[in-house]
Amino acid sequence: MAVGFHITAAILMLAFAIVYASDPSPLQDFCVAIGDADADADANVFVNGKICKDPKVVKPEDFFFQGLNKPGSLSNPLGSNVTQVNVNQIPGLNTLGISLARIDFAPYGLNPPHTHPRATEILVVLEGTLLVGFVTSNPAMNMKNRLFTKVLNPGDVFVFPQGLIHFQFNNGKTNAVAIASLSSQNPGVITIANAVFGSDPPISPAVLTKAFQVDNNVIKYLQSQFWWDNNYP
Description:
Blueprint: H1 2-18, E1 80-85, E2 99-105, E3 110-115, E4 121-127, E5 130-135, E6 147-152, E7 157-160, E8 166-170, E9 176-182, E10 190-191, H2 192-197, H3 205-212, H4 216-231
Antiparallel strand pairs: 1-2, 2-9, 3-8, 3-10, 4-7, 4-9, 5-6, 5-8
Helix pairs in contact: 3-4
């Protein structure tokens, strides 16, 4: 495992060195983020990112995160866990245009179809075997959305372009681990099923019945299941 993390570190450093960040380029050495709870609520200042801490009080800990070597809990219906390391975990990432995540998978665990609206993702597998893929945006008339998919083994790397729906599935009988690097300090994530069937308030069943061309009762069942899962995990 230690060797795997050394390999991953080298790959990530290379990726970070050549990445073209989608976030605005910084105009200073760093802009360590002030926590949302500590920001002056009366200042009425809104920025595309986080408010900067005074550089004179910045500490090494503002650029530090510990524990990415520890596996995440897999006791959930999907059998996967994402440990995020973005600006909310490392304030020093503010304005730097990068973040990463560790993804753990139980056997046949799934990181379900989702998108990152603000980032391209590059994934490297450390352990196990993953079936991964992404789907293109809507093409010209009379054409279909194209799926790009690949089976990845330890040391393999795959890229998911910004904003496109993608997934990772552990199709093996042992646990799997991957590290993802993203070209934003706060890439965001939209899990397709949660957004469509679990929104609050819910999307009208009439809309979803028409969109998915299924019986109205199927839509109502899916919405009730997502409501139950979100309120009684």
